[in-house]
Amino acid sequence: MKQAQSSSLGFTLIELMVTVSIAAVLLALALPSFAPTIRSNRLTTYTNDLIASFSLARSEAVKRGQHVVVGRNGANWEDGWRVFVDINRMGANANVYDATDAANCTVGADCLLKTYPALSGSYTLRGGNNVAVFVRYVPSGISNYIPDGLSNIANDYFVICDNSDGNNLPEANTAKLITINSVGRLRLAADTSVPPDNIPNLNATTNVATCTPA
Model's pTM, two decimal places? Predict the structure, then answer.
């Protein structure tokens, strides 16, 4: 009885190498076209995170009847920021996160609500003069940047840049301007102008000429 010869189906090594080579070429051609989209999506994500953090701070200040602060974690806002209930406001601790007993949230030190990580790569996030370090919301929901005073912030801003070209200039479609008004509400400017600052009826502080204002 003659036994039928069986054959195995599959790719030869040469066929596999040719397929992988073609895939690598196509991927290399496609990556440059995806890069602007990836950067744009990342810029939008960072912007939304910042706006969400201020919305959280304002609502928690009203709900808890406490001072709630949005403050940067490091030397600059791009190092990340946190939202916390500023329970310990004694002296130098006002508007500064005090981690001692932070999990308690009722007595002792401050209550951490949320932490936002540092921005990646060459992205920068800086605030104008009045919001360079923190913004505090009082129980009425109004923002107040003076540690023990009653003056509300005037119109100020945050600027987020994809500064990968290293020129430190807010350019169309690679930067976003977020203004904050005297009651702590944020507004996003159109990002197609150069620089992206075309919000009408705001003062000269919105004429942003640099990604890293002092």
Answer: 0.74
Q: Residue 93's domain spans which residues?
A: 13-206
> For residues 69 and 53, what is the distance between their CA atoms, to the nearest angstrom?
10
Flag whether 163 is in a domain: yes
CB 197 within 8 A of CB 177: yes
5: in domain? no
Token pair, residue 106, equals: 């009722």
Q: Say how many domains are in the chain.
A: 1
Are the CB atoms for 188 and 57 separated by under 8 Å? no
The answer to whether position 6 is within a domain reads no
For the beta carbon of residue 49, count every other beta carbon within 10 angstroms: 16
Rounded Cα distance, 167 and 75, in Å: 21
Measuring CA to CA, which residue among 65, 64, 72 is closest to residue 135? 72
Q: Going residue by residue through the chain (214 aa), what tens digit of pLDDT does each one get? A: 455 555 556 668 787 788 888 888 777 665 566 677 777 788 999 999 999 999 999 999 999 999 999 999 999 999 999 999 998 787 788 888 887 755 566 666 788 999 999 999 889 999 888 888 999 999 988 886 544 444 444 567 899 999 888 888 888 788 888 888 777 788 887 555 555 554 444 444 456 788 888 6
Grouping H, G, I as helix, E, B as strand and the rest as coil, residue 63 is: helix
Instruction: Please check whether residue 8 lies inside any domain of the structure.
Output: no
User: 67: domain CATH number?
Assistant: 3.55.40.10
Q: How far is CA 158 from CA 5, 9, 136, 169, 200, in A?
A: 74, 61, 15, 14, 16
